[in-house]
Structures are given as structure tokens and as C-alpha cells.
Amino acid sequence: MTLRERLSAGDRVVGTVINIADPAVAELMSAEWDLVWIDREHGAVGRKEAQDILVGAAAAGTPALIRVSGCDSPEIGSSLDAGAHGVVIPNVRSADEARRALSRVAFPPTGSRGVGARRLGMLRSRGVEIEPLVMMQIETAAGVDASGAISSLDGVGALVVGTSDLSADLGVTPDAPDVARAVGVVSAAAERSGIPWGVAGGDAGVLAGLAGRAGQIMMVSTDLRIIAAAVASKVGEIRSALDAGG
Predict the structure, then answer these.
(1) Which CATH number covers residue 141?
(2) Interatomic CA distance for residues 132 and 62, integer angstroms
């Protein structure tokens, strides 16, 4: 089943964010997840590096979306041309911003995306068709207030609450009641529109509490944090063994 089909079937999917621009690392980091986001918003990932990561994720059999830098980013079209399974639009604050992003996803006459399939054309020549999934990230109080209008737009595939940015915007921690209330507003908007919703952040326990039983998408941590934690754990294990042996 494709990612879109799994979400349509009501499955919960769990993923992480990829920042390291190496196809071998991308294959390793993608293998156990249901999906990954390639980070062109915060990560040091360019167009070529994003395609390299897409190749690595494809080798792992994991669908990869690219989080672009904003709703007006030219990266939207080039990300889809490179064969991404969709795009993530960060910090969407209004229906107008969402419309502008959707215009860059669709070809004329519906949208403004240029025709230049590149890697996508090669995939199509092999019989691989990708219907791009567009996820809108809600990360501010303004975005929460507009979530009903955003979710009702044709072409919006999912809403995902970015808990770190939202909590910063609200002036609270991600586990604060204000964040939970905001997630409730966004989830209700998505459910009224018949689209999946989810949460993203660094703490799996907090995310699980916010998502409850209904949230289908959970984006947890990043490759950098996961590798750093694994290194710290292994070094601690080695030091403990040396201390015990000495």
C-alpha cells in the first residue's frame, strides 16, 4: 500500500526527519520508519542532496516527503520533480498561504507548477506513478485559528501540528494544556474535512499523548538527534564497562 492508501485506510504512520545528505545514511535511517521528511526548512540540504536522500529512502522502500522552506518556495515543484512522495509546507498561517503552496504543486491550468519532471519522468517511464501528498504544518496560534479553512481546501492531504514551534508561539512547553487544546482544534478541523492529522516534535511520549487514538501521523525527532543519542549511549556503555573492569 502507498502512504496515501495507508492513511485513507486509517493506519497510523510514524516517521522521522532526515537532515544528513548521504544516500547510504538515508537508506539506513529510513528503513524502520513508515515515512520520512527530508528537511529543507531547517536542514543544510540543497536540491542535489535532497534527491540523493530520496534515492536512499527509495532503496529502503520508505516514502519520503520534502519539507520545503515555505508556501512560496520554488522548491515545491523541484521536490516533486525529483520524485518526492509529497511536500510538507511549514508554518502555514492562513488559507491564502495554503492556496499559494497548492498552486505550486499543480500544473496549469489549475496551478503554476512548471513542466520539467526530471527524475519523476524517469520513474514514470518505469511505471511508477506518484500522486503527491501535501501536508500543511500548523505551528502558530494564527494557523490553529485558520485550520478549518486550510483543511477544507482541495488538495490538502493532511494537517500536522509542529509542537515545538507552536509551543514557542504560545509561550509554553510542548506538554502544556494550551498545546493540547490547540491540537484539539486542528484535529477537529481535519476530521470535519475528512483528512488525516498528526503531530511532530522531539518527545515521543508527549506526541503520543497529544495524538491519542485518532492522530494518524507522528513525526518523531530527527536523524541527527537519534544518532547523537545512540553515540552518547554507546560511549556511556563503554565507559561503564571500562570502569567496572578497572
Answers:
(1) 3.20.20.60
(2) 15
pLDDT, tens digit, 9 for 90 and up, residues 133-153: 999 999 999 999 999 999 999
Inside any domain, residue 244: no
For the chain, give the percent of residues with pLDDT over 70: 94
Could you tell me where the beta strands, DSSP code E, fall in the chain?
Answer: 13-18, 35-39, 64-67, 86-89, 133-138, 158-162, 197-201, 217-222
Q: How crowded is residue 40: how many other Cβ atoms within 10 Å of its Cβ? A: 24
Owning domain of residue 159: 3-239
CA distances from 68 to 19, 22, 80, 136 (A): 12, 18, 11, 11
Kindly report the pTM of this predicted structure: 0.91
pLDDT digits (tens, 9 = 90+) for 61-101: 999 999 999 999 999 988 998 889 999 999 999 999 999 99
Could you give the angle at which helices 163-170 and 177-193 cross, rounded to 10 degrees? 120
Q: Are 84 and 37 in contact (CB under 8 A)?
A: no
Nearest to 25 by CA among 180, 199, 211, 223: 223
| pLDDT for the residue 245 | 81
The identity of residue 211, as a single letter, is A
Q: Which amino acid, 128?
A: V
- CA dist 123 and 87 (Å) reads 18
216, 231, 232, 221: which is closest to 18 by C-alpha? 221
